[in-house]
């Protein structure tokens, strides 16, 4: 099966930023640049006649901000925000952005965000990219943003993920303090191998390999009790039955 190709548009009112992102797109094989726009109004006019997979979208622009514009997009057009102002991060994730790049960012950071978009569309369209070195069921680690750094998280060390509105807490074996990252639990769930992790509550995704005790509707992991909510109970019980003597 051929590798997925994502059509994209860059929107930024700063010419230098526009050209930089264009150079990043051009060196990324699975991205296809359809247009670069200096305003959200120009991009909106283009998208009235063209369908695009992905927008690299600046937030602070005159007339129509990137946040306002993102709310007008079709549901299958996803957004990666680019901005110099970190106070917009929470708002960005409230509109379900795929990622958030804080200027100035380098190509490595750009590529991490672009790969996240590619994986999302592969899952959506049922593609398996030959160029992808790590498939969802084979993942051993993830890079997550925390305090302006990209931290490499080994999935075998994860006990559970806890959702807190627009943030998640990542609890690791042997680490008494959680890692805090600006991300939605829903977007994280799409990235995790289904054989190793399961959503058991609107606020929790647990590592199935690290469950110590199941008691009634509660899971015990590292002395933390996590309730399995009704919405996820049948799927969790199926997992228990499949692995019981």
CATH fold field value of the largest domain: Rossmann fold
Q: What distance lies between the first and last C-alpha atoms, to the nearest angstrom?
A: 40 Å
Radius of gyration equals 19 Å
Count the DSSP helices.
7
**Superfamily at the CATH H level of the largest domain?**
Response regulator
* Strand order in the largest sheet: 2-1-3-4-5
Shape: elongated
CATH architecture type of the largest domain? 3-Layer(aba) Sandwich
Task: State the total count of DSSP E strands.
Answer: 15
The top level CATH class name of the largest domain: Alpha Beta
Beta-strand percentage range: 25-35%
What is the averaged pLDDT score? 84
Q: Give the tally of structural domains.
A: 2
Secondary structure class reads alpha/beta
**Low-confidence blocks of residues:** 127-137
The major β-sheet equals: 5 strands, parallel
Written as H for each helix and E for each strand, in order along the chain, the element string is EHEHEHEHEHEEEEEHEEEEEH
**Share of helical residues:** 25-40%
